[in-house]
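Lab notebook, bench 4. Still working through the backlog of constructs that have no structural model yet. Next entry is a single chain of 473 residues. Request: give me the structure tokens for it.
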Amino acid sequence: MIFGLPSFAVWTLLLVLRTIKFSFMEEWKEYKLGDIGTIVGGATPSTKDPLNYDGNISWITPKDLSNFNGRYIGRGERMITTEGFNSSSCRMLPKGSVLFSSRAPIGYVAIAKNELCTNQGFKSVIPNPKIVDSTFLYYLLVFNKTRIEGLGSGTTFKEVSGQVMKNVSVLLPSLNTQQSIASVLSSIDDKIECNKLINDNLPWALWITHLILLLFKRKNDNLEQQAQALFKSWFVDFEPFKNGEFVESELGRIPKGWCVGVYNDIISDTVSGDWGKEKEEGNYTHRVACVRGCDFQDIKNGLRGKTPERFILEKNFQNKHFCDKDMLVEISGGTASVSTGRVCPVSQQLIDKYDGDIVCTNFCKLVRPKTGYGAYLYYSWLNKYSNKVMFGYENGTSGIKNFRIKDFTSIEPVILPPIKMVEEFQNHIDSIQKQIQTRGSESHNLAQIRDTLLPRLMSGELKVNEIEKSITI
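Model written out:
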């Protein structure tokens, strides 16, 4: 193991290392960021003029990086038009520029995948290729982000000015050494991103691939779309049952022998979350990881998420801890364009990552399906969410919205297939979830390795050619 690096990755890392021309540590020179690149701010076109938006110019805001786990970004949630660009003080950044958020919050870092611009929440760096390697600069800013954050000023929120950013001092080795260091760190991030890509594009077993191709006559899409496509094929379009008898129901024609009920018919229990205490206090002694809605996407990708540590009552933990096949529902936090009711599946692999000590926050609910209905409940609920059904079950007209989950589960109609059918569907989903969680664990281990190597490489404490000496199988 290398700092806990699993053996599957050791050989990959060794192969990369042995293709790199290592250089022994030479003297690192001190520069200011303004000496090694051009510091560029951004701007926001007037939001009152609709002609400024929905164009073809990539425009990035700090919000676009809030849940962004990659290194290279090509576009954000919104695009701007040429009119919007020209009406503001936006500046175009070339491919390879390193974006650094300078406020709300300070320290998001990404590399421009293509030409783009940003809002005023960035002080980005266009690197001088004669002095600094773009990828090395990315890791250099990641390494220094806490120090740069400490240079921010302001009363409402801290911000790093362009002048402060220009004067940030950094140490650089030669370009060759920069590229070697960047290659080592990139090799790890490449594997992490590859795992995510595999999770998004994981091949089905051959017969499932055949089924998808047969039913939809198209190539495999990403994993989540595949699973949803299988759900839609079986339980919405009834493709495998087209030759059988159908009967009329309140949800239209359904296969004979199926029926329509409500979600409570396939739910055994709904459990409230628990935020507990920040520190051990009185009877609040059981340490748990507390899942929030913002952790859902990481968990779906097989990661732990940034779940905070909390302390709850022992009796509450016994009532609220996760079980395999449970489902998490976010019940608060909706906006005008994004409804509440988002869901996240729970698997035994996820529970094992926390040694079982895991609950959800009180802004979520844990929904426990009846035996056999876990995957069906999740994908049926997800289908309703995708079709914006949850907007009809929200209260509140402004600000934070809340999901009326009791009304939804007791009123919203749902098709109830035979138990054998949903159990067969569950078997397919279990196989996929296991692989997603396994690759997520690999990515977590790799991230730990990267975070261990990063400060030592960027400070010059560890030579690139010394890494092989730290590797044992």
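Notes after review: Residues 29-172 form a domain with the Adenine-n6-DNA-methyltransferase TaqI; Chain A, domain 2 fold (CATH 3.90.220.20). The chain has 15 helices and 24 strands. Flag for follow-up if needed.
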